[in-house]
């Protein structure tokens, strides 16, 4: 049994390594747009994570050009166009929608011939975007002590085994084993200190911890898919390849998780976090490789977790003490007071009302 678990862990880590292999060449150069921010507004009860994005139509998004992550040159940008990121929260969970144009590409069971996306967040105070946390330790020496402060949190979704419109991510089977894996749709929960030291939540270089779990849920869709009644595995590949259209990826996760290993980012309402998004795409039908991904920026993008809907009537109602109920109460009190004065004045000046002594009653 133990040997089987070891083999399974090595297999999972090998698949993670295939996705995130990272080989740089030349000197790193970055010209980020620090003024661009992502805003997660408070909008409860708006989004259902199912891949269909009609419920996002009134939520503002931010567009980002997709440049090669290891060589952010505008001349080498993703030829499908920009990625739009939308996000909101309901006070308990945070939601993301990634939208990017691309011809339909799907090969059942082959992740590298299908699009793939990832979100990365800074956890440690010293975590850099470049080199996935930036810890200088080698794979044989990186651990929670030598790389403390460089932790990044990663969610990665490879759709080669995921049915469009179905929910993937955290599930009782993998969470029961105490790791961030997803054996059904490969929507996995990871952490890293650098590109060569990355693991599923709960899995480490020295020992595993059974308290970890995958906190993410997600689904995907493509605009060329015509059926909305629900696909099953036998419908694969679901549509004809090379059809033009748009990919949609929806995700959710609790604002706060039960992580005690410094592997999950913890979101706080009213404060900012650091985010980045990436896309892998089989350009011209050719399988992508791990380091050939596009990124929304060559540095962290600030993400504000808003306390309310910015500029909306609901925000004004929360911040303005003179709300409708208060105004009505004040008006009613004034009218009642004036009415009592008027009646008292009429009684005191009327000659028809005679004084009657108490003794005569």
Automatic annotation (TrEMBL):
Q: Which organism is it from?
A: Cuscuta australis
* Source species taxonomy: Eukaryota, Viridiplantae, Streptophyta, Embryophyta, Tracheophyta
- Recite the UniProt keywords alphabetically: Electron transport, Heme, Iron, Membrane, Metal-binding, Signal, Transmembrane, Transmembrane helix, Transport
Annotated signal sequence is 1-21
The protein's name? Cytochrome c-552/DMSO reductase-like haem-binding domain-containing protein
The cross-references to PANTHER family, in alphabetical order and at most eight, read:
CYTOCHROME C-552_DMSO REDUCTASE-LIKE HAEM-BINDING DOMAIN-CONTAINING PROTEIN, HEME BINDING PROTEIN
What does the record give under GO molecular function?
A: heme binding; metal ion binding
Cytochrome c-552/DMSO reductase-like haem-binding domain residues: 53-295
Q: Which domain of life is it from?
A: Eukaryota
For this protein, the record's InterPro entries field holds: Cyt-c552/DMSO_Rdtase_haem-bd
Q: Where does the sequence pass through the membrane?
A: 324-344
């Amino acid at each position: 049994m133990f040997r089987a678990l070891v083999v399974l862990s090595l297999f999972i880590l090998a698949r993670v390594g295939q996705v995130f292999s990272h080989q740089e060449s030349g000197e790193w150069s970055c010209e980020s747009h620090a003024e661009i921010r992502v805003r997660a507004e408070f909008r409860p009860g708006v989004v259902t994570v199912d891949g269909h994005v009609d419920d996002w139509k009134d939520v503002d998004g931010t567009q980002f050009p997709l440049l090669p992550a290891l060589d952010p040159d505008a001349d080498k940008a993703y030829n499908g166009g920009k990625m739009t990121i939308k996000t909101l929260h309901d006070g308990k969970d945070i939601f993301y929608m990634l939208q990017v144009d691309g011809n339909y590409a799907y090969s059942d069971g082959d992740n590298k011939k299908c699009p793939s996306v990832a979100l990365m967040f800074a956890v440690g105070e010293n975590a850099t975007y470049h080199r996935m946390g930036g810890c200088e330790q080698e794979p044989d020496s990186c651990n929670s002590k030598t790389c403390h402060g460089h932790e990044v949190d990663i969610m990665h979704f490879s759709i080669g085994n995921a049915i469009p419109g179905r929910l993937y991510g955290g599930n009782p089977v993998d969470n029961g084993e105490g790791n961030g894996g997803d054996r059904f749709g490969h929507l996995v929960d990871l952490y890293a200190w650098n590109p060569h030291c990355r693991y599923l939540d709960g899995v480490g270089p020295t020992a595993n911890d059974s308290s970890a779990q995958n906190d993410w849920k997600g689904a995907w869709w493509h605009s060329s898919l015509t059926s909305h009644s629900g696909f099953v595995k036998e419908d694969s590949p679901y549509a004809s390849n090379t059809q033009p259209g748009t990919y949609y990826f929806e995700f959710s996760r609790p604002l706060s998780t039960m992580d005690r290993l410094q592997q999950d980012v913890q979101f706080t309402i009213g404060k900012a976090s650091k985010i980045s998004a990436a896309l892998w795409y089989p350009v011209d039908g050719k399988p992508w490789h791990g380091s050939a991904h596009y990124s929304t920026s060559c540095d962290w993008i600030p993400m504000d977790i808003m306390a309310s809907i910015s500029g909306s009537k609901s925000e004004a109602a929360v911040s303005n003490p003179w709300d409708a109920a208060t105004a009505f109460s004040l008006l009613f009190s004034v009218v009642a007071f004036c009415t009592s004065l008027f009646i008292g004045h009429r009684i005191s000046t009327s000659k028809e009302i005679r004084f009657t002594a108490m003794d005569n009653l």
